[in-house]
Amino acid sequence: MQILESLIGTQIGLVCAFLATALLVVVSGIRLSIYGDALGDRTGLGSGLIGLVFLAGVTSLPELVVSLTSVIQATDPAQGADLSVGNMLGSNVFNLLILALMALLFPRRFDPKTLTDPQTDSTLYGLVMLAIFGIAFATADLDVPRVPLLGCSWPVLALPATYGLILRREHRQQKLETKEQLPTETRLAQLPALHFYSVLALLCGLIVGGGILLSILGARMSLPPEQGGFGLEATLIGTLFLAVSTSLPELVISFSSVRLGFLEMSVGNVLGSNMFNLLIIFVADVALHGYSILRQASSKHWTSVGLILLLTLLAGLLLRTRSRTQSVPLAAAMMLIYLAAMAFLM
Predict the structure, then answer these.
(1) Is the pLDDT of residue 170 over 90?
(2) Least crowded by CB within 10 Å, which of 82, 107, 256, 274?
């Protein structure tokens, strides 16, 4: 442990540890994309729903762990809330950027015409959940009764309830679409169950563990330079460094999925992760019975909420394009908006 502390106790060591962990996540993410497609074949759920639910949940676990750790262990509730909320919102912003990067870097593979209606509807689901979060954030300072036993606010409780309804509708729609399709059997799909699910669990563990370690390394960047950090404020660390660190699994899996021709799974992973990330607020609010995480969070986070709203609207248009001449300008606009927003926050 002391060796690890001494290694990441300098800025150079911190960067080296970050890159090494990122490499582990990249390799594991590529394999998980392949196994995720095989899982869709084995279960009959299809790659789109696997991306929207399974891969989205796996790649969002680092955000969940980091956000909970930030608020529970923080000596200053406001700082912990800023790190947690900033991590979640910043991850959602970066996830939407992944869609733009896929369109720019893989123009031949990124063909929205191949997407089914449930996938393109996911942008609307994301907007609905973002609106619920906005209501919860705007009413956090009001002295209203909280949900008995759980201790969270009623708007926050609406987040998991809405998420459950969305997944139920997606599952029904997926069953209707795959009812008349013949099942496919790949080599991985035919592996013995114990072998297949053991490797799948190992890959998930590496992704989650790597994502958590990346987020820890990202959090150390808030330390003063003399302690090996970069001396950045908590809001920026949460929105930028923690968010990018915990979103690296989504980036790797989405890129590897689209390169392998699994665009449905790739888009589902990104949009599903954004919906799953909003559930972090519910979990944190329940875990912190003493106070509301949104009441402690800075009003600066409204900038991220507005940015997510704008990028989600553009992502919805991007996923409905029918040619590269339409998709490239939209993707470029999303990139420019993201870079401008990060420059503003810094």
Answers:
(1) no
(2) 107
